[in-house]
Amino acid sequence: MSILPAGPTAYDPGDGWDEAFAAPGVPREHYAGVMEALARTGPRAAAEATRARLRERGVTFGGEDFVVDPVPRLITASEWEEVAAGLRQRVLALDAFLADVHGERRAVAAGVVPEQVVAGAPYLEEDLRGARPAGGARVAIAGLDLVRGADGRFRVLEDNVRTPSGSVYGLAASQAVEEALPVRCPHADAARELGDALRWVLEAANPGAEGELVLLTDGPSNPAWHEHVRLAELAGLRIARPPDLRRRGARLELRDGGAPVRAVYRRTDEDRLRDEDGTLTDAGELLLEPLLEGTVGLVNHYGNGLADDKRVYPYVDDLVRFHLGEEPRLPSVPTYDLADRDTRSDVVENIGDVVVKPRDGYGGDGVTVGPTAGRTELREAREAVQEDPSGWIAQDPVALSTHPTVVGDRLKPRHVDLRPFAFCDGAEVRVVPGGLTRVALEEGSMVVNSSSGGGGKATWVLAGER
């Protein structure tokens, strides 16, 4: 059975940018082999084989099967070079900003970021004001969300430098699709590079010290527990929960045996040192004094949530210019800080033309997509913005690119984004090839998050493809 028949039933990519097809029924050159393999295997059979391999390996998210579409996303070497260069630049700028905001705050004094944005940030860690990490970078790992608009150009939709997840799910998707689909597209060994990069940033977080490198987790109750286990395997880390550690003065050690801890990769759901009432969290009790004394390294640092704050996002392009003296190579989607009265007035008047997001939201929760929202949704969004302007931002809508996705026996266009992963030791940035492509499985939907019904795709950077 052909999946690319002639006539009106051919795959129609629509009017936007399709990753795999240049025109109805006409795949882009570097996708020809994938389309031929799908035609031989059959879309349904490929999807079933992919699902079976993931289940065999127990790949779950939040206790549910992790859904992967069998049509891989292919990125040419020249496209990837540009993406990687833009990621390196943005990560260095965000790391410099976080160091600055916990220090002299030159960017605030220069008016690059408004003072009220920083002063009201929920993830600012005043305990760490003036404290320098033992080594490495505050943004040791970044998983930035990229989208392609109708012009085919990548842009940054969101910054994720707190505890970015998804790297192992990208690997799981790649492995399952390789086994299920008879296609061989030479691409980088992302598993090896991911493990090497993770260990590299942990070692850089406390250079010259001795002791265990620990992945700190909540345990099986964490939705990404599968990822925690796999990352520890890839990088040779010791998995521990907060009760497995103890502080002895300004030193951190394993409770079982007393081995010293050199550096911690933080993957717990608790992102702050203190609770809302100012009490130290369990992790804060363990880590605050060692962090202040510089006896333990941390990946990623407390306070990084400030860079994920959507009220900071409108100013990141300017932060690239301020800290690096360069023009952004991966620009942000045009975004509006609604705490500004004039900006807010214009957005409220035209709220049906923008996307409204909560300042500290994630996973698509609380987002109102103006162009597709009903009257009630728009009214509620307008009221929420007027009631708490600093709690919201607005963005120009982006028609996310589409990718062929299996629906029954056919391929249909579904919207996708891309989360690549960058690792920084404070000076150098390594970008692991590929990452995780997330796909909205419902027709017309822009919600790609696994927690909201989205799925994943294998993402391969092609060797030598320009």
Strand content: 15-25%
Name of the CATH class of the domain at 335-395:
Alpha Beta
Q: List segments where confidence is low: pLDDT < 50 over at least 5 consecutive residues.
A: 1-9
Mean pLDDT: 90
Question: How many extended strands?
Answer: 22
Largest sheet: 6 strands, mixed
Shape label:
globular
Named CATH topology of the domain at 335-395:
Dna Ligase, domain 1
Q: Report the C-alpha radius of gyration, rounded.
A: 22 Å
Question: How are the elements arranged and paired?
Answer:
Blueprint: E1 21-23, E2 26-27, H1 32-41, H2 43-56, E3 60-61, E4 64-65, E5 68-75, H3 77-101, H4 106-109, H5 115-119, E6 141-143, E7 145-148, E8 154-158, H6 167-180, H7 190-204, E9 212-216, H8 225-235, E10 238-240, E11 245-248, E12 251-254, E13 261-266, H9 282-293, E14 297-299, H10 305-308, H11 316-324, E15 335-337, H12 341-349, E16 355-358, E17 368-369, H13 375-387, E18 392-395, E19 402-407, E20 410-424, E21 429-439, E22 455-461
Parallel strand pairs: 5-22, 9-10, 9-13, 13-14
Antiparallel strand pairs: 1-2, 3-4, 6-20, 7-8, 11-12, 15-18, 16-17, 16-18, 19-20, 20-21, 21-22
